[in-house]
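Final report, closing paragraph on structural work. Over the funding period we assembled a curated collection of sequence-structure pairs, and we close with a single example.
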Amino acid sequence: MHSDLKTVIELHQLDSRIAELTAQIEALPSEIQTLEAQLSEFIRAHEDRKQRLAQNHKERRDLESEIQVIQARISKHKDQLYEVKTNEQYRAMLKEIEGEEANVRRIEDQLLEKMLEAEELEKLIKEAASRLDSEKARVAAEVQRLQTLRQADEEERDRLLAQRQQDETTLPPEILELYERVRKARRGLALAEARDGCCTACNVRLRPQVYNEVRTNESIVTCESCSRILYYVELPAEGTEAEGSAKSGEPAAAHD
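Its predicted structure, as stored:
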């Protein structure tokens, strides 16, 4: 293989890996933020339930106090029954007592609803409290793992960038300029394999003369359709591959 083509292929592999590492590095802060937001939401929901439970207790005390006030009025009205002088006053007093007793039953129903709500809140609060420390530990461990991964990615990217810079110096300026121009135009994909007479990037059939030249891997050849730099990978002969697979105990891979 021509040394310049070999270097261009290595540049392409380096750029692909550098792009992959850059994408991972840029995504990690968002992943960390998502984890921290999830923990904050868990804590916020836990605190909200505790506040709702405290409010529930206050509302129950208010309802119980209201029942006591109404029952005191009922007791007073019942004492007044013995003081009324006419049947009409007596019936009016009974009606008022019935109305107050109906209010007591209504409030007792509200109180029961509040008690059921409190039971559910207490259950959720207890479950969340038992999970809170483990959730904090889990998020802290995952954040630490992601930060360590980011540091490792940055170190590997720096190493690959240094290697890329070194490779650039070994290429003729016109070939490096061609590679960079195609890479920019084709969103980072400056190379394409030629196979079965076609460019595998754009699937356009190459002229026989061009394909034969690409197969030698002894010069820089570009696709006349997409302008990518072409290279050829010699596939193993079927008999050789089958023999090697038989020795290794693995099935032979199929090729298009």
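The longest strand covers residues 191-195. The helical segments are 3-80, 87-170, 173-185, 208-216, 238-248. We thank the funder for supporting this effort.
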